[in-house]
């Protein structure tokens, strides 16, 4: 029986094993036989035994005892044994193994062998597992082989040189002269290797760009030859002449033409020719066209050429292959800010991609659709986005809702349209919106005084229909509490009026209070709305008093406190109830301390240049009312006694003291400290100490690169004794060039007042590469704490 049959027989027996235990038994017996063969020395069977061991290694079983046998076979003069030894070295050895150093001399000898096939084995092994030490020792040999006359050896030596540059970048200068000369070769394999080598040299050492830009005309001629060449069965792939070499040349031209007008002008005509003559019906042609588009967008190309590139990406959107549609939208996302009008022409096709079955394609189409929203198309685009919101996967709802809110705030044609759009989102996906949505909508409603009647009617109908959407219920309760009198009048020109009785309104609020779906915050809104209605209705005040009194013993402390305060208004301070529960003034979004979740808004300092006059009514207010106000929350037992009438001097002094009571409360800027800065991503931290135990940490991420950062996520961990609550982030895409930010709010509760430490994991994607880093924060900045935080990467 021949040795090869023995290998085949071993494979057959292993595959026929019925259980894992039976397979392990077979492997153990075979490994014992292989060890015996190795101990017998040169008996002609060592290479076949090593072949069987490599198969065992492929199955995942230990095969380390064959490493020294690989070294022996590499030193053998027989080609069959040398070939098996090199194969075993590439599979069983790596640069961390000491045995790999033993083959350095054998590789050096084989690189000078008379047979090109032996030289090829040595080159492949060095390119596969060569360590930095081996690369330093053998770099001169590789540089010599780059000048060889044999194309077969040149091709492999070129790829080996690429490996050496990656392992030892300081050796790059050794290969620069040879790399330029390789471009004159006719062999496609050598040309491919030469382009890869030059690309690696340019990426590793930008100083070489000027030297290789002189080769742009030569690269253009090679590319034109590929585009216009006749059919060649050796290099043809689906009707495209050597698409692999074309893609490599286009990538190199993209690097050489970046921010260089001379090189860009030299390749403009070529890129136009490739873009118009390449067939995109097959995958090979699509790959060449895609690289052409990327090159056009990255160099200083003409405007007409950029429009042509966008049109190519638009054609890709009609392709049946989802992968091609995905990369097309990814590319359009990068250029939508600079070539907005050109991308707008394909808006209909992009919106159609929202209906795709693949979630990743939907996500890309959503991001691109939101970027295309403008004041001109806001109504039509919002209609499509709202339809998508009702059918999109759960993991996309939050992103869709946030995008709709931002677009509506920037481009809303009217306040009524703005309110209707947000209410539609809350009705559809109220549980997936960010926390600041409720105060933002309340602020919008309060400023639209002409729409109060319309809004309260519409929100009441939504509340009666569905109370499962918490954000919607909270806004509805606030509006009913503020504008309940308008609801009860039933007079509304903008909407069909509905006769609503006091009992109907109170019943709706009681339903919210008693529902198991209502959160504590929602119950708080409903209880406050019920209390406010006591000054807006006339016949059901006793019912309101009864509802409020029930929650005076509620297990939730927030609700209990509110109910106790409201009961005090009913009993001891009924004469103040109407004044306390009057309508809230219009909320100014730009007022100090009110940012509505927008961290980019500036806090304006109050104008202190002119002191405001003190109103006489403030000083002449009866002391008894002051006592009532102070006693509202359970004041001191000692009543305040009225002082005798003060003189004018003392009056002025008291007035100044009273006005200075809240002095020094001007907004203090919260210190911002950079905790992470890498790959163009900057992460800053702000800390606000709310109480002795509660701290609000805000992480702000910005992007200084030329492309958007996507899939941005933050994870945080703190000591077990500290409670951590992470709010929903403002988004997961950070715009390029610092045009936007993503914020993440973290609430920390430190009841034991232990030393705070936090570990933050940052994950994101940029230009197709996925990055993940961890940062250790050992102290926190705050207005009350001096010093910088201690930060260490992990």
UniProtKB/TrEMBL annotation:
<keyword id="KW-0653">Protein transport</keyword>
<keyword id="KW-0813">Transport</keyword>
<comment type="similarity">
    <text>Belongs to the adaptor complexes large subunit family.</text>
</comment>
<dbReference type="InterPro" id="IPR008152">
    <property type="entry name" value="Clathrin_a/b/g-adaptin_app_Ig"/>
</dbReference>
<keyword id="KW-0968">Cytoplasmic vesicle</keyword>
<dbReference type="InterPro" id="IPR002553">
    <property type="entry name" value="Clathrin/coatomer_adapt-like_N"/>
</dbReference>
<dbReference type="InterPro" id="IPR017107">
    <property type="entry name" value="AP1_complex_gsu"/>
</dbReference>
<dbReference type="GO" id="GO:0030121">
    <property type="term" value="C:AP-1 adaptor complex"/>
</dbReference>
<keyword id="KW-0472">Membrane</keyword>
<feature type="region of interest" description="Disordered">
    <location>
        <begin position="587"/>
        <end position="614"/>
    </location>
</feature>
<dbReference type="GO" id="GO:0006886">
    <property type="term" value="P:intracellular protein transport"/>
</dbReference>
<dbReference type="InterPro" id="IPR008153">
    <property type="entry name" value="GAE_dom"/>
</dbReference>
<protein>
    <recommendedName>
        <fullName>AP-1 complex subunit gamma</fullName>
    </recommendedName>
</protein>
<feature type="domain" description="GAE">
    <location>
        <begin position="668"/>
        <end position="781"/>
    </location>
</feature>
<keyword id="KW-0333">Golgi apparatus</keyword>
<dbReference type="InterPro" id="IPR011989">
    <property type="entry name" value="ARM-like"/>
</dbReference>
<dbReference type="GO" id="GO:0016192">
    <property type="term" value="P:vesicle-mediated transport"/>
</dbReference>
<feature type="compositionally biased region" description="Basic and acidic residues">
    <location>
        <begin position="601"/>
        <end position="613"/>
    </location>
</feature>
<dbReference type="InterPro" id="IPR013041">
    <property type="entry name" value="Clathrin_app_Ig-like_sf"/>
</dbReference>
<feature type="region of interest" description="Disordered">
    <location>
        <begin position="634"/>
        <end position="653"/>
    </location>
</feature>
<dbReference type="InterPro" id="IPR016024">
    <property type="entry name" value="ARM-type_fold"/>
</dbReference>
<dbReference type="Pfam" id="PF01602">
    <property type="entry name" value="Adaptin_N"/>
</dbReference>
<dbReference type="Pfam" id="PF02883">
    <property type="entry name" value="Alpha_adaptinC2"/>
</dbReference>
<dbReference type="InterPro" id="IPR050840">
    <property type="entry name" value="Adaptor_Complx_Large_Subunit"/>
</dbReference>
């Amino acid at each position: 029986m021949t040795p090869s049959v023995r290998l085949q027989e071993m494979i057959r027996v292993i595959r026929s094993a019925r259980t894992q235990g039976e397979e392990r038994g077979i492997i153990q017996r075979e490994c014992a036989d292989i060890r015996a063969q190795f101990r017998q020395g040169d008996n002609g069977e060592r290479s076949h035994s090593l072949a069987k061991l490599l198969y065992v290694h492929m199955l995942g079983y230990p095969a380390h005892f064959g490493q020294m046998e690989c070294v022996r076979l590499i030193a053998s003069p027989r080609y069959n044994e040398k070939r098996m030894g090199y194969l075993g070295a590439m599979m069983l050895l790596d640069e961390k193994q000491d045995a790999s150093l033993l083959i350095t001399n054998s590789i050096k000898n084989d690189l000078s062998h008379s047979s090109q096939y032996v030289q090829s084995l040595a080159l492949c092994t060095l390119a596969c597992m060569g360590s930095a030490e081996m690369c330093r020792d053998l770099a001169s040999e590789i540089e010599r082989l780059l000048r060889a006359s044999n194309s077969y050896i040149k091709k492999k030596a070129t790829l080996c040189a690429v490996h050496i540059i990656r392992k030892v970048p300081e050796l790059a200068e050794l290969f620069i002269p040879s790399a330029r000369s390789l471009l004159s070769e006719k062999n496609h394999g050598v040309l491919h290797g030469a382009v890869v080598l030059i690309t690696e040299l340019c990426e590793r050492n930008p100083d070489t760009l000027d030297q290789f830009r002189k080769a742009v005309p030569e690269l253009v001629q090679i590319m034109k030859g590929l585009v216009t060449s006749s059919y060649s069965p050796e290099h043809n792939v689906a009707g495209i002449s050597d698409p692999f070499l074309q893609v490599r040349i286009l990538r190199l031209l993209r690097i050489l033409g970046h921010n260089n007008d001379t090189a860009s002008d030299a390749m403009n005509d070529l890129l136009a020719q490739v873009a118009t003559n390449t067939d995109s019906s097959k995958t090979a042609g699509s790959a060449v066209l895609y690289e052409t588009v990327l090159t056009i967008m990255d160099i200083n190309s003409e405007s007409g050429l950029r429009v042509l590139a966008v049109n190519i990406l638009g054609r890709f959107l009609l392709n049946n292959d989802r992968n091609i549609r995905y990369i097309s939208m990814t590319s359009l996302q990068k250029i939508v800010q600079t070539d907005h009008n050109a991308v707008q022409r394909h808006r209909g096709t992009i919106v159609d991609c929202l209906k795709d079955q693949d979630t990743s394609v939907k996500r890309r189409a959503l991001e691109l659709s939101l970027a295309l929203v403008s004041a001109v198309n806001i109504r039509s685009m919002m209609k499509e986005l709202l339809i998508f919101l009702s059918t999109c996967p759960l993991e996309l709802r939050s992103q869709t809702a946030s995008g709709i809110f931002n677009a509506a705030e920037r481009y809303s044609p009217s306040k009524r349209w703005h309110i209707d759009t947000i209410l539609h989102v809350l009705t559809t996906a109220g549980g997936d919106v960010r926390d600041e949505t409720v105060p933002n909508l309340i602020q919008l409603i309060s400023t639209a005084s002409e729409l109060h009647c319309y809004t309260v009617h519409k929100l009441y109908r939504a509340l009666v229909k569905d109370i499962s959407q918490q954000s919607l219920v909270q806004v509805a309760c606030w509006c009913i509490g503020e504008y309940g009198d308008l609801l009860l009048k039933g007079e509304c020109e903008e909407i069909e009026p509905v006769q609503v009785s006091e009992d109907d309104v109170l019943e709706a609020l009681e339903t919210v209070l008693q529902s198991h779906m209502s959160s504590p915050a929602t119950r708080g809104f409903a209880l406050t709305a019920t209390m406010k209605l006591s000054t807006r209705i006339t016949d059901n005040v006793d019912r309101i008093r009864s509802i409020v009194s029930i929650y005076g013993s509620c297990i939730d402390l927030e609700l209990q406190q509110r109910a106790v305060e409201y009961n005090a208004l009913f009993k001891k301070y009924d004469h103040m109830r109407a004044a306390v529960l009057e309508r809230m003034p219009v909320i100014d979004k730009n007022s100090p301390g009110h940012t509505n979740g927008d961290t980019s808004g500036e806090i304006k300092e109050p104008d202190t240049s002119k002191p405001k006059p003190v109103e006489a009514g403030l000083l002449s207010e009866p002391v008894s009312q002051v006592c009532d106000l102070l006693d509202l929350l359970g004041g001191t037992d000692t009543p305040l006694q009225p002082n005798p009438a003060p003189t004018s001097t003392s009056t002025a002094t008291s007035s100044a003291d009273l006005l200075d009571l809240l002095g020094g409360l001007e907004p203090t800027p919260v210190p911002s400290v950079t905790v992470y800065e890498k790959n163009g991503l900057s992460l800053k931290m702000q800390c606000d100490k709310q109480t002795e135990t509660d701290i609000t940490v805000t992480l702000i991420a910005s992007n200084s690169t030329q492309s958007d950062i996507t899939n941005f996520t933050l994870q945080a961990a703190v000591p077990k004794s500290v409670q951590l609550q992470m709010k929903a982030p403002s988004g997961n895409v950070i715009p390029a060039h610092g045009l936007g930010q993503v914020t993440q709010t973290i609430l920390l509760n430190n009841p034991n007042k232990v030393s705070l430490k936090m570990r933050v994991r940052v994950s994101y994607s940029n230009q197709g590469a996925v990055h993940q880093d961890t940062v250790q924060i050992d102290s926190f900045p705050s207005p009350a704490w001096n010093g910088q935080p201690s930060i260490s990467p992990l």
